């Protein structure tokens, strides 16, 4: 009897282990190849930003997709009157604008109305940005890693930057160092995914920074597997077809400068431990480094911009761990050749783009986009920042970020790539 019980116990334990192993594996590789692949790709008419439809333009879908599509359309109608709480987090906090944090204090806010700016022809601008992106995605002579894979082949963990608002039918792919803190705040207000003393936030700037970047606050695509199991990819595709999808981008080199400024020129304990210490050891030959960022800064010990570029170009970096999201390429964060974005905003035209997008989403009466930073890192700074970086490094760095330059129509920085 004892041997029989031990045998049964062993079988149970092995079964549990195998189930856990399958769950972990499936969560990493996605549900690709475990069901029929279905295509929802489509192109909108020039300049059109799709709203939420109720089924008139549905293409012939497999039975499962058709059922889920009808269910989704029904839930969207209900959501217009019944707030949906996703990943609710009850926060007891102040209703005062949360502008007292270190990074905000360093940069400051620009509360001006920018009435003197020339209005842009936003519709034509969007047509041009989308045309450029689609042309290069379809151009077989322009290649970069992961370009040719399908949406089904993107692992779930690479979909963690796609934030979903089911209440308004919006999907936002956030790119760090491209006004993502404030766009996340906007998504929180729209989705009502965060409460302040039992009441959803109404003013984006009321939301404390630490809650904005808390992963539990947002419903993202990589969470779908745990919620919907084998239907997760089907739901993703349906929402990608029916929802309005947007992202904001930025000149890649300027984004790198901004990332360096905020993560290594300010006292950031996490980035000091994870990145600064290894950089200082590997590229500056420092030993016996201070144990805290405060102590390091007091002694004047900081990572240089040159150290940072060395780290990005070092082939060992990606082998040890993928690029941190603050300097990971945009095409790796948002998959623009696999996802047909309806709106492409740029930080360089943030105020105009944000106002136009909120109008298109028909939420401009609910909120305004928070004012932009006064001391935003400027393109004109590139020459100074890269002046001490060797030409060969600059050329390698451009190749590393070339896809972002080309896909989002940023000019090649010729002055930095020649003697």
From TrEMBL:
Report a single Gene Ontology molecular function: sulfotransferase activity
- Write out the transmembrane intervals: 7-26
Q: Which domain of life is it from?
A: Eukaryota
Q: Where in the cell is it found?
A: Golgi apparatus membrane
Q: Which UniProt keywords apply?
A: Carbohydrate metabolism, Glycoprotein, Golgi apparatus, Membrane, Signal-anchor, Transferase, Transmembrane, Transmembrane helix
Report the membrane topology from the UniProt record.
Answer: Single-pass type II membrane protein
GO CC annotation, single: Golgi membrane
EC number assigned by the record: 2.8.2.-
Q: Does the keyword Translocase apply?
A: no
Enzyme class, broadest EC rank: transferase
GO process terms (BP) = carbohydrate biosynthetic process; proteoglycan biosynthetic process
**Keyword Glycoprotein set for record:** yes
Chief location: Golgi
Q: Would you identify the family this protein belongs to, as annotated? A: Belongs to the sulfotransferase 2 family.
Write down the PANTHER family for this protein, in alphabetical order. CARBOHYDRATE SULFOTRANSFERASE (PTHR12137), CARBOHYDRATE SULFOTRANSFERASE 12 (PTHR12137:SF4)
Q: What is this protein called?
A: Carbohydrate sulfotransferase
Specify the species.
Answer: Rhynochetos jubatus
């Amino acid at each position: 009897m004892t041997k029989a019980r031990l045998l049964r116990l062993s079988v149970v334990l092995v079964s549990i282990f195998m189930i856990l192993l399958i769950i972990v594996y499936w969560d990493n590789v996605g549900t690709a190849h475990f069901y029929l692949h279905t295509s929802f790709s489509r192109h909108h008419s020039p300049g059109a930003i799709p709203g939420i439809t109720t089924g008139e333009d549905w293409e012939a879908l497999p039975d499962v997709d058709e059922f889920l599509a009808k269910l989704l359309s029904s839930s969207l109608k209900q959501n217009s009157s019944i707030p949906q709480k996703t990943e609710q987090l009850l926060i007891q906090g102040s209703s005062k604008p949360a502008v007292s944090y270190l990074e905000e204090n360093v940069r400051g806010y620009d509360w001006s109305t920018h009435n003197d700016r020339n209005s842009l022809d936003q519709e034509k601008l969007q047509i041009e940005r989308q045309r450029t992106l689609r042309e290069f995605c379809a151009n077989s002579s322009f290649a970069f890693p992961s370009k040719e894979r399908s949406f089904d082949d993107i692992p779930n963990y690479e979909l963690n930057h796609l934030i979903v608002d089911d209440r308004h039918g919006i999907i936002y792919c956030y790119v760090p160092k491209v006004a993502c803190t404030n766009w996340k705040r906007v998504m929180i207000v729209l989705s009502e995914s965060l409460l302040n003393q039992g009441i959803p936030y109404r003013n984006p700037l009321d939301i404390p920074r630490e809650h904005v970047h808390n992963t539990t606050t947002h419903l993202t695509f990589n969470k779908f597997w745990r919620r919907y199991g084998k239907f997760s990819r089907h739901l993703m595709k349906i929402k990608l077809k029916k929802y309005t999808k947007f992202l904001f981008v930025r000149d890649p080199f300027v984004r790198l400068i901004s990332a360096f400024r905020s993560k290594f020129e300010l006292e950031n304990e996490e980035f000091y431990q994870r990145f600064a210490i290894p950089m200082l050891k590997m590229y500056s030959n420092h030993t016996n480094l201070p144990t805290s960022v405060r102590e390091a800064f007091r002694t004047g010990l900081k990572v240089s911009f040159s150290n940072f570029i060395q780290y990005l170009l070092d082939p060992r970096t990606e082998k040890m761990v993928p690029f941190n999201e603050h300097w990971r390429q945009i095409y790796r964060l948002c998959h623009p050749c696999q996802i047909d974005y309806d709106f492409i905003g740029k930080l360089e035209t943030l105020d105009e783009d944000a106002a136009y997008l909120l109008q298109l989403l028909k939420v401009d009466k609910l909120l305004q986009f928070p004012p932009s930073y006064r001391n935003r890192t400027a393109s004109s700074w590139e020459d100074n920042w890269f002046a001490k970086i060797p030409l060969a490094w600059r050329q390698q760095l451009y190749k590393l970020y070339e896809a972002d330059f080309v896909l989002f129509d940023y000019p090649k920085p010729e002055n930095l790539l020649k003697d």
